[in-house]
Design brief:
The protein is mostly helical. Helices cover 68% and strands 0% of the residues. The protein starts with a helix and ends in a 31-residue tail after the last helix.
Length: 400
Protein backbone atom coordinates (compact mmCIF):
# COMPACT_ATOMS: atom_id res chain seq x y z
CA UNK A 1 0.00 0.00 0.00
CA UNK A 2 1.33 3.44 -0.89
CA UNK A 3 1.94 6.19 1.64
CA UNK A 4 -0.93 8.24 0.23
CA UNK A 5 -3.45 5.45 0.77
CA UNK A 6 -2.12 4.63 4.25
CA UNK A 7 -1.96 8.25 5.40
CA UNK A 8 -5.74 8.73 5.24
CA UNK A 9 -6.69 6.09 7.87
CA UNK A 10 -3.70 7.06 10.05
CA UNK A 11 -4.82 10.70 10.15
CA UNK A 12 -8.44 9.74 10.80
CA UNK A 13 -7.41 7.48 13.66
CA UNK A 14 -5.12 10.11 15.18
CA UNK A 15 -7.81 12.78 15.12
CA UNK A 16 -10.40 10.39 16.57
CA UNK A 17 -8.14 9.18 19.39
CA UNK A 18 -7.21 12.75 20.34
CA UNK A 19 -10.84 13.88 20.24
CA UNK A 20 -12.05 10.92 22.31
CA UNK A 21 -9.48 11.48 25.04
CA UNK A 22 -10.17 15.23 25.07
CA UNK A 23 -13.90 14.55 25.40
CA UNK A 24 -13.23 11.99 28.15
CA UNK A 25 -11.11 14.49 30.06
CA UNK A 26 -13.78 17.16 29.70
CA UNK A 27 -16.33 14.79 31.25
CA UNK A 28 -14.64 14.74 34.65
CA UNK A 29 -16.75 17.65 35.90
CA UNK A 30 -19.91 15.66 35.22
CA UNK A 31 -18.74 12.98 37.67
CA UNK A 32 -18.54 15.60 40.43
CA UNK A 33 -22.15 16.71 40.12
CA UNK A 34 -24.60 15.87 42.92
CA UNK A 35 -26.35 12.59 42.30
CA UNK A 36 -23.67 11.07 40.08
CA UNK A 37 -22.46 8.72 42.80
CA UNK A 38 -26.04 7.62 43.45
CA UNK A 39 -26.64 6.90 39.77
CA UNK A 40 -23.36 5.12 38.99
CA UNK A 41 -22.32 3.93 42.42
CA UNK A 42 -19.62 5.44 44.56
CA UNK A 43 -16.92 2.94 43.52
CA UNK A 44 -17.67 3.23 39.80
CA UNK A 45 -17.76 7.03 39.89
CA UNK A 46 -14.44 7.12 41.76
CA UNK A 47 -12.83 4.73 39.27
CA UNK A 48 -14.05 6.74 36.29
CA UNK A 49 -12.81 9.96 37.84
CA UNK A 50 -9.41 8.35 38.44
CA UNK A 51 -9.28 7.19 34.82
CA UNK A 52 -10.29 10.51 33.26
CA UNK A 53 -8.46 13.05 35.44
CA UNK A 54 -5.04 12.69 33.69
CA UNK A 55 -6.67 13.84 30.44
CA UNK A 56 -8.63 16.73 31.92
CA UNK A 57 -7.80 20.40 31.41
CA UNK A 58 -9.40 21.14 34.78
CA UNK A 59 -6.42 21.50 37.15
CA UNK A 60 -6.45 20.07 40.69
CA UNK A 61 -6.97 22.36 43.66
CA UNK A 62 -3.27 22.42 44.50
CA UNK A 63 -2.56 24.01 41.12
CA UNK A 64 -5.63 26.24 40.97
CA UNK A 65 -4.99 27.88 44.33
CA UNK A 66 -1.20 27.50 44.33
CA UNK A 67 -1.27 25.34 47.47
CA UNK A 68 1.27 22.70 46.55
CA UNK A 69 4.32 22.18 48.71
CA UNK A 70 5.02 25.91 48.37
CA UNK A 71 1.76 26.97 50.00
CA UNK A 72 2.96 29.03 52.96
CA UNK A 73 1.74 32.56 53.55
CA UNK A 74 3.81 35.10 51.67
CA UNK A 75 5.23 32.53 49.31
CA UNK A 76 5.30 33.58 45.68
CA UNK A 77 3.81 30.26 44.58
CA UNK A 78 0.63 30.91 46.57
CA UNK A 79 0.59 34.61 45.69
CA UNK A 80 0.70 34.01 41.96
CA UNK A 81 -1.04 30.72 41.11
CA UNK A 82 -1.48 31.87 37.51
CA UNK A 83 2.03 30.75 36.70
CA UNK A 84 1.24 27.20 37.78
CA UNK A 85 -2.05 27.24 35.93
CA UNK A 86 -0.17 28.25 32.81
CA UNK A 87 2.30 25.39 33.27
CA UNK A 88 -0.58 22.95 33.74
CA UNK A 89 -2.26 24.16 30.55
CA UNK A 90 1.02 23.86 28.66
CA UNK A 91 1.45 20.30 29.93
CA UNK A 92 -1.98 19.29 28.66
CA UNK A 93 -1.36 20.93 25.29
CA UNK A 94 1.89 19.00 24.96
CA UNK A 95 0.12 15.80 26.00
CA UNK A 96 -2.56 15.99 23.31
CA UNK A 97 -0.13 17.21 20.64
CA UNK A 98 2.26 14.35 21.43
CA UNK A 99 -0.66 11.91 21.36
CA UNK A 100 -1.47 12.87 17.77
CA UNK A 101 2.18 13.18 16.73
CA UNK A 102 3.10 9.70 17.99
CA UNK A 103 -0.01 7.89 16.77
CA UNK A 104 0.00 8.97 13.13
CA UNK A 105 3.51 7.77 12.10
CA UNK A 106 3.07 4.43 13.87
CA UNK A 107 -0.38 3.82 12.41
CA UNK A 108 0.91 4.86 8.99
CA UNK A 109 3.70 2.28 9.19
CA UNK A 110 1.41 -0.47 10.43
CA UNK A 111 -1.32 0.13 7.87
CA UNK A 112 1.20 0.35 5.02
CA UNK A 113 3.16 -2.79 5.96
CA UNK A 114 0.19 -4.68 7.45
CA UNK A 115 -2.80 -3.75 5.28
CA UNK A 116 -6.14 -5.23 6.39
CA UNK A 117 -6.58 -7.47 3.34
CA UNK A 118 -5.99 -11.16 2.58
CA UNK A 119 -6.73 -12.32 6.13
CA UNK A 120 -4.73 -9.57 7.86
CA UNK A 121 -7.73 -7.71 9.32
CA UNK A 122 -7.57 -9.12 12.90
CA UNK A 123 -3.79 -8.64 13.02
CA UNK A 124 -4.06 -5.04 11.81
CA UNK A 125 -6.80 -4.23 14.32
CA UNK A 126 -4.82 -5.63 17.25
CA UNK A 127 -1.62 -3.92 16.12
CA UNK A 128 -3.20 -0.47 15.77
CA UNK A 129 -4.99 -0.92 19.10
CA UNK A 130 -1.73 -1.79 20.83
CA UNK A 131 0.00 1.15 19.18
CA UNK A 132 -2.70 3.43 20.56
CA UNK A 133 -1.78 2.27 24.07
CA UNK A 134 1.89 2.93 23.38
CA UNK A 135 1.00 6.37 22.05
CA UNK A 136 -0.89 7.23 25.23
CA UNK A 137 2.08 6.15 27.36
CA UNK A 138 4.52 8.23 25.33
CA UNK A 139 2.26 11.28 25.42
CA UNK A 140 1.89 11.10 29.19
CA UNK A 141 5.63 10.60 29.64
CA UNK A 142 6.63 13.50 27.37
CA UNK A 143 4.28 15.95 29.11
CA UNK A 144 5.12 14.77 32.64
CA UNK A 145 7.91 17.34 33.37
CA UNK A 146 5.58 20.29 32.74
CA UNK A 147 2.85 18.70 34.82
CA UNK A 148 5.22 18.07 37.73
CA UNK A 149 6.49 21.66 37.54
CA UNK A 150 2.91 22.96 37.74
CA UNK A 151 2.54 21.32 41.16
CA UNK A 152 5.27 23.60 42.52
CA UNK A 153 7.72 20.90 43.63
CA UNK A 154 9.48 19.80 40.47
CA UNK A 155 12.89 19.47 42.14
CA UNK A 156 11.61 17.17 44.90
CA UNK A 157 12.03 13.43 44.12
CA UNK A 158 11.83 13.98 40.38
CA UNK A 159 12.20 10.36 39.21
CA UNK A 160 9.51 8.92 41.54
CA UNK A 161 7.20 11.72 40.42
CA UNK A 162 7.89 10.86 36.77
CA UNK A 163 6.96 7.25 37.50
CA UNK A 164 3.78 8.29 39.29
CA UNK A 165 2.60 10.73 36.61
CA UNK A 166 3.56 8.34 33.80
CA UNK A 167 1.31 5.59 35.15
CA UNK A 168 -1.88 7.65 35.02
CA UNK A 169 -4.62 7.64 32.43
CA UNK A 170 -3.85 4.23 30.94
CA UNK A 171 -7.24 2.57 31.60
CA UNK A 172 -9.25 5.01 29.50
CA UNK A 173 -6.63 4.83 26.72
CA UNK A 174 -7.33 1.10 26.41
CA UNK A 175 -10.97 1.81 25.59
CA UNK A 176 -10.50 4.85 23.35
CA UNK A 177 -7.60 3.26 21.47
CA UNK A 178 -9.80 0.27 20.61
CA UNK A 179 -12.45 2.57 19.10
CA UNK A 180 -9.83 4.55 17.17
CA UNK A 181 -8.22 1.33 15.92
CA UNK A 182 -11.53 -0.03 14.64
CA UNK A 183 -12.22 3.15 12.69
CA UNK A 184 -8.64 3.27 11.38
CA UNK A 185 -8.81 -0.30 10.09
CA UNK A 186 -12.23 0.28 8.54
CA UNK A 187 -10.98 3.32 6.63
CA UNK A 188 -7.78 1.45 5.68
CA UNK A 189 -9.81 -1.40 4.25
CA UNK A 190 -11.70 1.07 2.08
CA UNK A 191 -8.56 2.84 0.87
CA UNK A 192 -6.86 -0.51 0.16
CA UNK A 193 -9.37 -1.27 -2.59
CA UNK A 194 -7.71 -0.82 -5.93
CA UNK A 195 -4.23 -0.73 -4.41
CA UNK A 196 -3.19 -3.83 -6.34
CA UNK A 197 -2.44 -7.33 -5.05
CA UNK A 198 -1.04 -7.46 -1.51
CA UNK A 199 -0.31 -11.18 -1.12
CA UNK A 200 1.19 -12.95 1.87
CA UNK A 201 4.93 -13.50 1.85
CA UNK A 202 6.69 -16.84 1.60
CA UNK A 203 9.11 -17.13 4.54
CA UNK A 204 11.07 -20.28 5.43
CA UNK A 205 9.49 -21.99 8.42
CA UNK A 206 12.82 -22.55 10.17
CA UNK A 207 13.80 -18.88 9.84
CA UNK A 208 10.43 -17.66 11.13
CA UNK A 209 10.53 -19.98 14.14
CA UNK A 210 14.11 -19.03 14.97
CA UNK A 211 13.25 -15.32 14.84
CA UNK A 212 10.16 -15.84 17.01
CA UNK A 213 12.09 -17.87 19.57
CA UNK A 214 14.90 -15.30 19.79
CA UNK A 215 12.46 -12.40 20.22
CA UNK A 216 10.40 -14.26 22.81
CA UNK A 217 13.55 -15.07 24.80
CA UNK A 218 14.25 -11.34 25.05
CA UNK A 219 10.75 -10.68 26.42
CA UNK A 220 11.16 -13.60 28.83
CA UNK A 221 14.14 -11.82 30.39
CA UNK A 222 11.69 -9.26 31.76
CA UNK A 223 8.65 -11.43 32.50
CA UNK A 224 10.59 -14.34 34.04
CA UNK A 225 13.96 -13.07 35.31
CA UNK A 226 13.55 -9.38 36.18
CA UNK A 227 9.99 -9.76 37.42
CA UNK A 228 10.95 -12.27 40.10
CA UNK A 229 10.46 -10.73 43.55
CA UNK A 230 14.10 -10.78 44.68
CA UNK A 231 15.38 -9.31 41.42
CA UNK A 232 12.60 -6.72 41.35
CA UNK A 233 13.48 -5.73 44.90
CA UNK A 234 17.10 -5.21 43.85
CA UNK A 235 15.96 -2.98 41.01
CA UNK A 236 13.74 -1.04 43.39
CA UNK A 237 16.68 -0.23 45.67
CA UNK A 238 19.04 1.01 42.92
CA UNK A 239 20.66 4.29 43.89
CA UNK A 240 22.20 6.91 41.59
CA UNK A 241 24.33 9.89 42.60
CA UNK A 242 22.84 13.36 42.44
CA UNK A 243 19.70 14.93 43.82
CA UNK A 244 17.61 14.88 40.64
CA UNK A 245 18.56 11.28 39.78
CA UNK A 246 18.01 9.84 43.24
CA UNK A 247 15.49 7.06 43.89
CA UNK A 248 15.14 5.72 40.33
CA UNK A 249 13.63 2.41 41.49
CA UNK A 250 9.99 3.19 40.64
CA UNK A 251 10.89 4.46 37.18
CA UNK A 252 13.15 1.46 36.47
CA UNK A 253 10.44 -0.98 37.51
CA UNK A 254 7.94 0.80 35.31
CA UNK A 255 10.12 0.62 32.19
CA UNK A 256 11.78 -2.76 32.78
CA UNK A 257 9.28 -5.09 34.49
CA UNK A 258 6.36 -6.65 32.67
CA UNK A 259 4.87 -8.06 35.86
CA UNK A 260 5.77 -9.56 39.19
CA UNK A 261 5.79 -13.07 40.60
CA UNK A 262 7.12 -15.08 43.51
CA UNK A 263 7.59 -18.73 44.35
CA UNK A 264 4.80 -20.82 45.91
CA UNK A 265 4.46 -20.09 49.61
CA UNK A 266 1.60 -20.89 51.97
CA UNK A 267 -0.63 -22.33 49.26
CA UNK A 268 -1.02 -25.28 46.93
CA UNK A 269 1.47 -25.69 44.12
CA UNK A 270 -1.33 -26.34 41.65
CA UNK A 271 -2.92 -22.99 42.46
CA UNK A 272 0.47 -21.31 41.96
CA UNK A 273 0.91 -22.97 38.56
CA UNK A 274 -2.59 -21.85 37.59
CA UNK A 275 -1.65 -18.21 38.11
CA UNK A 276 1.58 -18.70 36.16
CA UNK A 277 -0.52 -19.59 33.11
CA UNK A 278 -1.00 -15.87 32.58
CA UNK A 279 2.76 -15.41 32.15
CA UNK A 280 2.86 -18.38 29.78
CA UNK A 281 0.04 -16.80 27.79
CA UNK A 282 2.05 -13.58 27.44
CA UNK A 283 5.05 -15.42 26.01
CA UNK A 284 2.84 -17.60 23.79
CA UNK A 285 1.17 -14.54 22.25
CA UNK A 286 4.55 -12.93 21.61
CA UNK A 287 5.99 -16.10 20.04
CA UNK A 288 3.01 -16.74 17.77
CA UNK A 289 2.87 -13.13 16.63
CA UNK A 290 6.58 -12.98 15.85
CA UNK A 291 6.23 -16.31 14.04
CA UNK A 292 3.48 -14.96 11.79
CA UNK A 293 4.74 -11.39 11.46
CA UNK A 294 7.27 -11.93 8.61
CA UNK A 295 4.52 -13.67 6.62
CA UNK A 296 1.88 -11.00 7.20
CA UNK A 297 4.09 -7.99 6.47
CA UNK A 298 4.29 -6.92 2.87
CA UNK A 299 8.00 -6.33 3.53
CA UNK A 300 9.87 -7.33 6.69
CA UNK A 301 11.75 -4.08 7.23
CA UNK A 302 13.41 -3.24 10.53
CA UNK A 303 10.87 -0.51 11.53
CA UNK A 304 7.94 -2.78 10.67
CA UNK A 305 9.35 -5.73 12.62
CA UNK A 306 10.15 -3.55 15.64
CA UNK A 307 6.69 -1.95 15.63
CA UNK A 308 5.09 -5.37 15.26
CA UNK A 309 7.11 -6.78 18.15
CA UNK A 310 6.10 -3.85 20.38
CA UNK A 311 2.43 -4.36 19.50
CA UNK A 312 2.75 -8.12 20.09
CA UNK A 313 4.18 -7.53 23.56
CA UNK A 314 1.39 -5.09 24.42
CA UNK A 315 -1.32 -7.50 23.20
CA UNK A 316 0.28 -10.33 25.18
CA UNK A 317 0.35 -8.11 28.26
CA UNK A 318 -3.36 -7.31 27.89
CA UNK A 319 -4.15 -11.03 27.51
CA UNK A 320 -2.11 -11.69 30.65
CA UNK A 321 -4.03 -9.09 32.64
CA UNK A 322 -7.40 -10.30 31.38
CA UNK A 323 -6.65 -13.89 32.36
CA UNK A 324 -5.45 -12.82 35.80
CA UNK A 325 -8.65 -10.80 36.29
CA UNK A 326 -10.76 -13.82 35.31
CA UNK A 327 -8.92 -16.08 37.75
CA UNK A 328 -9.13 -13.47 40.52
CA UNK A 329 -12.86 -13.06 39.88
CA UNK A 330 -13.33 -16.81 39.99
CA UNK A 331 -11.59 -17.08 43.36
CA UNK A 332 -12.91 -13.95 45.08
CA UNK A 333 -16.03 -13.05 43.18
CA UNK A 334 -16.75 -11.02 40.07
CA UNK A 335 -16.55 -7.75 42.00
CA UNK A 336 -12.94 -8.25 43.02
CA UNK A 337 -12.07 -9.50 39.55
CA UNK A 338 -13.40 -6.27 38.05
CA UNK A 339 -11.51 -4.16 40.56
CA UNK A 340 -8.32 -6.07 39.82
CA UNK A 341 -8.81 -5.58 36.09
CA UNK A 342 -9.56 -1.86 36.44
CA UNK A 343 -6.43 -1.41 38.51
CA UNK A 344 -4.05 -3.44 36.34
CA UNK A 345 -5.47 -2.72 32.88
CA UNK A 346 -2.75 -1.18 30.73
CA UNK A 347 -0.11 -1.60 33.44
CA UNK A 348 3.34 -2.46 32.05
CA UNK A 349 3.01 -0.77 28.66
CA UNK A 350 6.28 1.20 29.16
CA UNK A 351 8.11 -2.08 29.81
CA UNK A 352 6.38 -3.62 26.79
CA UNK A 353 7.72 -0.75 24.70
CA UNK A 354 11.26 -1.27 25.99
CA UNK A 355 11.40 -5.02 25.55
CA UNK A 356 9.30 -5.01 22.40
CA UNK A 357 11.89 -2.84 20.66
CA UNK A 358 14.68 -5.17 21.78
CA UNK A 359 12.68 -8.24 20.77
CA UNK A 360 11.95 -6.79 17.33
CA UNK A 361 15.61 -6.01 16.68
CA UNK A 362 16.63 -9.48 17.84
CA UNK A 363 14.00 -11.11 15.64
CA UNK A 364 15.17 -9.13 12.60
CA UNK A 365 18.78 -10.20 13.13
CA UNK A 366 17.78 -13.84 13.58
CA UNK A 367 15.55 -13.71 10.52
CA UNK A 368 18.28 -12.26 8.32
CA UNK A 369 20.91 -14.73 9.58
CA UNK A 370 18.58 -17.66 8.96
CA UNK A 371 17.96 -16.58 5.38
CA UNK A 372 14.40 -15.33 5.76
CA UNK A 373 14.99 -11.63 5.21
CA UNK A 374 13.30 -9.43 2.68
CA UNK A 375 16.26 -9.58 0.33
CA UNK A 376 16.36 -13.37 0.05
CA UNK A 377 12.67 -14.21 -0.01
CA UNK A 378 10.40 -13.86 -2.97
CA UNK A 379 6.83 -12.79 -2.49
CA UNK A 380 4.04 -15.11 -3.48
CA UNK A 381 2.96 -14.16 -7.01
CA UNK A 382 -0.65 -13.10 -7.40
CA UNK A 383 -2.95 -15.61 -9.06
CA UNK A 384 -3.27 -15.16 -12.78
CA UNK A 385 -6.26 -15.99 -14.92
CA UNK A 386 -5.55 -18.79 -17.36
CA UNK A 387 -5.47 -17.70 -20.95
CA UNK A 388 -7.33 -19.57 -23.60
CA UNK A 389 -5.13 -21.74 -25.80
CA UNK A 390 -4.55 -20.47 -29.28
CA UNK A 391 -6.56 -22.30 -31.94
CA UNK A 392 -4.63 -24.90 -33.82
CA UNK A 393 -3.67 -23.90 -37.35
CA UNK A 394 -4.72 -26.17 -40.18
CA UNK A 395 -2.02 -27.28 -42.58
CA UNK A 396 -1.84 -25.40 -45.81
CA UNK A 397 -3.81 -26.95 -48.62
CA UNK A 398 -1.73 -27.94 -51.60
CA UNK A 399 -2.15 -25.74 -54.57
CA UNK A 400 -4.05 -27.31 -57.44
Amino acid sequence: MTYRRAAIPALVGGVLLTALLWWAGASVNALRLPGTSDALGGRTAADLQYWLTPWSYDPPDSVRFGTGVLGDIGDQGSADPGRYLSLYGTAMQIRFAALFAFFVPGALLLVRRLPPVNGRLPATLLAVWAWGLVTGTLAVTVSAPWLIASYGHGSYRLLPQLASVGSGGRQIVVVTALVAAAVTVLVARITAKGAGPLPLRAVPVRAARLAATAGTAVVAVSSVVLSYESVAASIQTVSLPGRLLSEPGDLLRQWLLLGGWAGPAGGSTGHWFLYRLADVLLLAVVWWTLRRLPVLLTRATVPAMVAGAVCATVVGLLANQLLQAVMTGGDSGARWGWQHLSGSLGHGVPAALTWGVLAGLTAVVALRLAGGGAESTETVPPPTTPTEPAPAQLPDRPAV
